[in-house]
Amino acid sequence: MKLSFLIAAHNEEKIIAKTLDNLLNFPYDDYEVILGLDGCTDGTEKIVKEFCKKSKKFKYYKLNLRQGKPAVINSIIKHAKGEIVIINDADWLFTVNDRKMLEKYLAVFNNPKVGGIAESFPVEWQEEKLKMGNSGYKMAAYSAYLWLDFQKKNFTFKEKERTYLKEPTMFLTNVFRRKLYKKNFSLGDDFERTKYIMSENYKIVIFDDIEMPRMIATYNKIGVKDIFKQKIRTALARKQLENIQKINTKSYYLPAVSHIFKNSWKLGLGAGFLIIFWIFLTTIATLIAGFKKTDTKEGWKLRAKR
Q1: How many C-beta atoms surround the C-beta of residue 129 within 10 A?
Q2: Across the beta sheet with 58-63, what order do the strands follow?
């Protein structure tokens, strides 16, 4: 099956080469990489052009939408030829340990009722990065890992050798059948996508094996200011999902936070204290988001600087 990697990029000159180099050496033959350059004013386009010269699998489109990642993906997906779409953020690496694991990963789509693969582990959850990462990075990693752990324990089920989502909740789906794509307009596009795929009566797989192919972050440092901006954006995304997409996050939000707090101490004393600070930041960010307009274009400006 053909794979289409889609990347939305705005002024990514510091990181885009690492992301594209990873895809240049991808251990699979039938794939393409499509980039949407959204009003770039730095050296991103020059770097992308060099990769397009290296491989015909790479192509890009110059855009000036400035409405956030969903608008870019909505625009470039019409050029995708792959059966399976993989949305690859500009600061993510789709890591594959070996060809055999990749084949096992993609084999889930041999079942015609499987529509996508959800994020099985947070992009920051990597042993080496956790050792090198700053406090902000570790805070993001611990909180995301425990949030996903809560969801896996409460909203998945096993059937034969596979684990599936039984409710969309706030699982992220960035690997899916192209035919199931629906234009996204919210800040929670990957959450929104999960709900839509399941509403079409397709299953979404999640893996328990951390050695399976997955996205990992290119970075190992996150500033507290950036975490706070991202928390506001996430809170705005929840509002959109609740008001527009009718996804109920209130019913499990407090139980999830309680789970994160209780289990953080099992990861170490440092993790516990970082999670206390994370809860504080999340609470303040949620209060601030309550007074903001739920606007995707403005919300996507709350992005971390790389």
Answers
A1: 19
A2: 58-63, 31-38, 3-9, 84-87, 173-177, 114-118, 203-206, 162-165, 156-159
Question: Beta strands of the chain (E only): which ranges?
Answer: 3-9, 31-38, 58-63, 84-87, 92-95, 114-118, 156-159, 162-165, 173-177, 203-206, 214-217
Give the residues across from 224 on adjacent strands.
none
Rounded distance, CA 229 to CA 213, Å? 29
- In sequence order, which residues have a C-beta less than 8 Å from that of residue 276 and are 6 or more positions away? 261
Run of H or E including 45: helix 44-54
Instruction: Tell me how far apart the alpha carbons of residues 236 and 288 are, in angstroms, rounded to a whole number.
Output: 9
Q: Which 8-state DSSP code applies to residue 31?
A: E
List, in order, residues 6 or more apart from 14 with CB less than 8 Å away: 306
What's the distance, CA 96 to chain centroid?
Answer: 17
Query: pLDDT (tens digit, 9 = 90+) per residue, 113-170?
Result: 999 999 999 999 999 899 999 999 999 999 999 999 999 999 999 998 899 999 888 8
Q: How do 156-159 and 92-95 pair as beta strands?
A: unpaired
Domains and CATH numbers, the chain: 1-90 (3.90.550.10)
Residues whose CB is less than 8 angstroms from the CB of residue 230 and which lie 6 or more positions away in sequence, other chains included: 140, 302, 303, 304
Calculate Rg over the CA atoms of the chain.
19
Q: How far is CA 278 from CA 5, 48, 220, 249, in A?
A: 32, 36, 17, 19
- CA 3, chain centre distance (Å): 17
Query: In 207-265, where do the E strands start and end?
Result: 214-217
Mean pLDDT of 186-214: 93
How far apart CA 233 and CA 189 sit, in angstroms, is 12
